[in-house]
Amino acid sequence: MLLTGGGSGGVRPFRKDGGGPLDRRLPWPQQRRVLRRWRRTRPFWGGLLLILGGAELLLVPLSPLTVLVSLGLGGIAAVGIGIALVVAGLFLWFLPHTHHYVSVNALILSVLSFAATNLGGFLVGMLLGIAGSAMGFGWTPVPEDAEEDPAPPRVRDGQGTRTLAVLLPVVIVAGIVNGSPARAVPPGAPPAAEPIVAARTPPTITTTLFAPQAFIVAGVTEIPTADGPLKVMVLRMKAASLTDYALRTRDGGDELALGADTLDLSGSVTLYLTKFKGCIEGLLCLTFTPDRLPVPPLVPPFVFMTDVSAEQALVTSDSIVAGGLSLKASA
User: Which residues of 23-40 are buried (b: 16+ CB within 10 A; e: fewer)?
Assistant: First the structure.
């Protein structure tokens, strides 16, 4: 303890460990000092936000709400992602040296919760997870023997890491929306093939069950048609199976109808749709369009749709296997 002169000529104590008048009046000063030192040697606030975000995702499926955006398997996903975010927050508290790896994985789970768990717990859990992941990634270690109220340095160590933490959610979300990254064309490579021109009027397809077999990466783009560019939703996946598939064209004088009991697509499957209507998990029926409600940027493989009706401008796949194929034409 040091002594310093007061304003009235007397002397008053000056505490080296800091603390204002309110801090000196609160009880348990020694315990609070130990807790403060422990908190400053780990990404405490980032871990706290992850725990709160995970708890919110866990509580939404258990709430008394009668209408939820995702039910059934979506509720199981909410529990799984919620527990994973809580565990990630505890990792930031008790294993702070793993904050980079844990924060990146927690950020991916937080973004994924938008499509898998009731719109990310109605956005609250997702936003808490994203903020906690960014804070955990950008945390800079503080020595345990540092003063409790150290003066801020003029040049902060790890400033680049904190800047990257702010940009990391933006980069990951942009990468999900844009799909796979662009590939550079090596020198001397042959020119790219001419783009496929879609029909003037997209044919209508119906199926009783649409089940993707891998993650769906979705976005919005334009494809060429005989009448000019057409704005469509792009769905990319590894494979998909359709039951009671039916396709009807509306481009030209005669109407063609193509049917199949089963249709299996595999290998770099890409669907270009102007409209996509169906019931998620057979419970929640929605209509997706490029302008009003596009498909979420990332959809997990366990999400299936029933009673699907879509306007399919174009489809590409490495392999298409149809069972019970039929073809009809009518004037």
Answer: eeeeeeeeeeeeebeeee
